[in-house]
Design a protein that fits this description.
heterodimer, A: about 350 residues, alpha/beta, 2 domains, seven-stranded mixed beta sheet, four-stranded antiparallel beta sheet, 11 strands, B: about 280 residues, Elongation Factor Tu (Ef-tu), domain 3, Rossmann fold, six-stranded antiparallel beta sheet, 7 helices, 15 strands, globular
């Protein structure tokens, strides 16, 4: 660990090539007018200049649809339950720090004392090559939560683009070290290493100040208390009316983890797939109980639930903010509802804190 | 062990309690699982009807009973409709027990007031079993129970046994008495019974379960009578898909009903959003 290498763009492609020969590799690919994480078969498909993908990498750990049990209903009341096997070993190449941080937050949910076996297996089987951000758009606000622009932990390898000098490659885990050992890249001199790391630090400061200027929640440590005291602030009502409760924000959010579970019968009624699917707290049915009872029937209640969960409840539950500032919920909202603006309005005219 | 994998259990007995409610006695097929299975009063299981789905049900049997456990189920939705089609000898899937039950350790040496509405008596029945069996660990036990009509009362055959226990009172009320039905108890909502109860706020614990609107008025009445928010405990109901704090459905504010509850003190519940109580 702690090793630093310099890779030219050709060498980055070599690295990808080598990874492709051993693993399934997923990376950022340019679609028509957005980016997406997709399986890569050729290093040239990867676009390392991407800002943000539409769907976050949670789809590789918590797939949108996933069979969690196979059940066979035999003759004479015999029931056989089989757990699906999760064996794919893969590499996520070019993961931005906000998305990486989001996975570390999902770990808190799925890998607590009652571990989710499928999530765990995928985490163990996945190598993460992070890509520090050297560009951001007007929606990015990772600095608010310390989730970016550079990754602090959780990666096996991390790349940082230093322009003409190529990419800095740093190792973050034993798994990463093993990989690099096999690649045979040349080590850099101690002196050059210092220069590179200094340059990297300069880029980080520049990116931080750029993002802070564009979009930031100030005094974020006071946010949970501020939100608790402003549950009935008038900004909620107007935003709640704007919201269409379509659930897009849940789908694109890298930390939204709620899921539904449904049973699907085969045509002969002898086999059942128990399937979990992504769910959305913005949808009416989410909190519905028997006899049509619903504890969040009002759209406003559902709208507030998502934002309060990210910025307040998650801290009580898991000790950290549940938002990484990736900006997706604003970027992809059809009404361009902006939680940072909502918080800003509350900060401007809050119910006074005691 | 896969947290989503149910263990198979056979329906040993089905008891028709009322026109829409039955008690199912279940036994795990696997010896080892059956031996090890233990629950605390107030905890719940996730019951699977394969092909239809899975839903949470509170456990309603004697926590000291070995080898079997019971669920009292009212027919209200897709899973419960499927459960009502089952017969003795049929097999279901069971995961559990889950959640935090009633605070019986805290109640030891104190008076225990139980307030139940409708099927809300189901998760409290294990407490009644427990207090009767371990009678010396508690002071007075008083059960206030309300249902819609006399025909909707659950566990009627057991009342005599309950009332025979030392220092144990059972007070009943119903919303309405159909013509021709004999009824010697109160008529009115369950809070009416507060007028007849003996339990005082000093050195007592209150356990409440019922529809949330009923719990709202029960809590209000208790607070007016000097009980504190910390001595009142409620069992909350929310949609659940996993039972283990993952699927997110049961959250009320920062609380997961499945793992932080379903039993909460009113002190904990009061500041939460999106609730009636």
């Amino acid at each position: 660990m702690g090793r630093v290498l310099i890779l030219s763009i050709e060498e980055v492609k070599n690295l990808l090539e080598k990874l492709l020969s051993r693993y399934k590799v997923y990376g950022p690919v340019k679609a028509k007018d957005f980016w997406k994480f997709e399986e890569i078969t050729n290093p040239d498909e990867v676009d390392l200049g991407y800002i943000s993908t539409m769907l976050p990498i949670k789809k590789y750990f918590l797939p949108p649809f996933e069979t969690i049990l196979h059940v066979k209903l035999g003759e004479d009341k015999e029931i056989t339950i089989k757990e699906p096997e999760v064996n794919e070993k893969c590499v996520l190449f070019g993961v931005h720090p906000c998305d990486l941080k989001a996975i570390l937050l999902l770990d808190k949910v799925f890998l607590d004392e009652l571990k989710d076996p499928y999530y765990l297996k995928r985490r163990e089987n996945t190598i993460i090559v992070a890509l520090n951000c050297t560009a951001a758009d007007e929606y990015c606000f990772c600095t608010t939560f310390g989730a970016g622009p550079f990754a602090k932990e959780g990666y096996d390898l991390v790349l940082t683009n230093l322009d003409e000098r190529g990419y800095v490659l740093e190792v973050g885990s034993n798994k990463g070290e093993e990989l690099i050992k096999a690649m045979g890249f040349a080590e850099v001199s101690d002196e050059y290493r210092e220069t590179i790391l200094k340059r990297k630090e300069e880029i980080l400061r520049k990116m931080e100040s750029e993002i802070n200027q564009k979009r930031r929640i100030p005094n974020v440590e006071k946010l949970p208390e501020l939100l608790a005291k402003n549950f009935n602030h008038k900004v909620w009502e107007s935003m709640g009316k704007l919201c269409l409760a379509c659930g897009s924000c849940n789908l694109v959010c890298p930390t939204c983890y709620c899921f539904n579970v449904v049973d699907k019968f085969s045509i002969n009624l002898r086999e059942v797939e128990r399937i979990r699917t992504w769910d959305s707290c913005l949808l009416l049915e989410f909190a519905e109980v028997a006899l049509g009872g619903n504890f969040r029937r009002e759209r406003l209640a559902r709208f507030k639930q998502r934002i309060y969960h990210k910025l307040s409840y998650f801290i009580e539950q898991y000790g950290e903010f549940g938002c990484v500032g990736c900006g997706r919920c604003i970027r992809w909202c059809v009404r361009k509802i902006d939680p940072v603006k909502i918080v800003g309005e509350i900060m401007e005219k809050p119910v006074p804190l005691s | 062990m896969n947290i989503y994998r149910p263990s198979l259990a056979v329906i040993e007995k089905i008891n028709q309690e009322t026109r829409d409610t039955r008690t199912f006695t279940l036994r795990f097929l696997d010896d080892d699982i059956r031996e090890k299975y233990k629950f605390n009063p107030g905890q719940f299981n996730m019951i699977s009807i394969f092909g239809v789905g899975e839903a949470p049900f509170s456990i309603t049997s004697d926590p000291d009973a070995k080898g079997i456990f019971e669920h009292t189920i009212r027919m209200v939705g897709s899973v419960t409709n499927a459960i009502f089609k089952l017969r003795e000898g049929d097999i279901v899937g069971v995961r559990g027990p889950f959640g935090k039950g009633w605070p019986l350790d805290e109640a030891k040496g104190k008076d225990l007031l139980i307030v139940a509405g409708g099927i809300g008596i189901a998760p409290l029945r294990p407490v009644i079993y427990y207090t009767i069996k371990h009678r010396d660990e508690f002071n007075k036990v008083e059960v206030l129970y309300g249902a819609r009509t006399p025909g909707d009362l659950l566990y009627v055959d057991e009342y005599d046994q309950w009332k025979q226990a030392k220092n144990f009172r059972l007070l009943l009320t119903v919303d309405a008495v159909p013509k021709g039905v004999k009824w010697d108890h109160r008529v009115g909502v369950v809070t009416k019974l507060f007028e007849d109860m003996e339990t005082k706020p000093d050195n007592s614990i209150v356990l409440v379960c019922g529809p949330e609107i009923m719990m709202k008025f029960a809590v209000k009445g208790l607070l007016e009578r000097g009980f504190s928010k910390r001595q009142i405990y409620l069992s909350m109901e929310r949609r659940m898909k996993c039972g283990v704090g993952k699927c997110g459905h049961c959250q009320i504010g920062s609380k997961y009903v499945c793992k932080d509850g379903p039993v909460f003190s009113y002190d904990e519940v009061e500041p939460l959003p999106d609730k009636i109580v």
